[in-house]
Amino acid sequence: MDESTGAPFTAVLFLSFGGPERPEEVMPFLENVTRGRGVPRERLEEVAQHYHHFGGASPINALNRDMIAALQADLSMRGEDLPIYFGNRNWDPYAADALEQCYRDGHRRILVFTTSAWGGYSGCKQYHEDIAGAIAALREREPASNDDPVLLRKLPQYWSQAAFLDAQAGAVRRAVAALPDPDGDVRLVFTAHSIPLRADAAVGDGLYSRQVAQASAEVAARLVADGIVAGSAVGVDYDQVWQSRSGPPEVPWLEPDVADHLRALAARGVGQVVVAPIGFVSDHLEVVWDLDNELAELAGELGLGYARADTVGTDPRFTALIADMVVRYADGEGDLDAPGCGDNGAGCRSGCCG
User: Whole-model pTM above 0.90?
Assistant: First the structure.
């Protein structure tokens, strides 16, 4: 029998980016993330101050633990007894350590959920590489795994799933209610992490940017009936921009930048703005620094009413979506050609992020 199908999976690896949780971890974390990329020390020290502004910690690990607890509770209510292990790409708990513990606990077939909804290199293919790296580390640490191997199946991308989009729309509704004038006109702005234009074009001819654009349009369309976003002859009236670019200024990245866009909106006479970080599942440091700190301050200077929508995080609809994917694949079946799905780091079976 084909080992990739048929047999059930017995555990879940919750795989994320990682972040420091204490001040002394900030600089080692940043060095780890940027290793081999030639980022100047002074740039790392500048970014480190963003972390120290929040007590020397990123919110991401704590929020991931909240998501894991919510997912575990949802699965338990369904009668699914699959333990969830937490591993990261860039910081403790590392994916390799999580997989080693999973193996020692007797699990050989493991589903992998990643905290990126998207395609592209950073959003999908790099997580396949993380899985392959964790397996390579396991073979060194546990030589028996060479004869008693594991199978790690990455669950598919979920950016187009209705529950993900519904949760995003719910977050926008709550943000509108928090505006100074919730019944007044409001401009909706979706934002996601920018990447270099060359990197975007290299995978699926702009796969990542097209997915973000389509998801933004789907969420905006959900809000028209509420009167939150206006409809027009050409569709839904909203904006989709980018944030958190880095690197040398001569390298072109996806634009417009969210701060530049806020200035343009203010110059046009817009009075209130809701910014929705659709590109992020939970509050990375980039969300709380760029949007809650710098952008909120800029909005005040521009005289704009401003609210930032929540990330989907532990929204019950999003938790249920993750649980649905786990259940759908747990019996060893599921759509193995779904974008993002793949085994043991081999990459997407459809080649969408190759």
Answer: yes
Fold assignment, 162-308: Rossmann fold (3.40.50)
Q: What is the CATH number of domain 11-158+315-343?
A: 3.40.50.1400
- Chain centroid offset of residue 237 CA: 25
Taking only the tens place, the pLDDT of each residue in 220-241 is: 999 987 777 776 555 568 999 9
Domain extents in the chain: 11-158+315-343, 162-308
Buried b (16+ CB within 10 A) or exposed e, 5-30: eeeebbbbbbbbbbbbbeeebbbebb
Residues 48-86 have pLDDT tens digits of 999 999 999 999 999 999 999 999 999 999 999 999 999
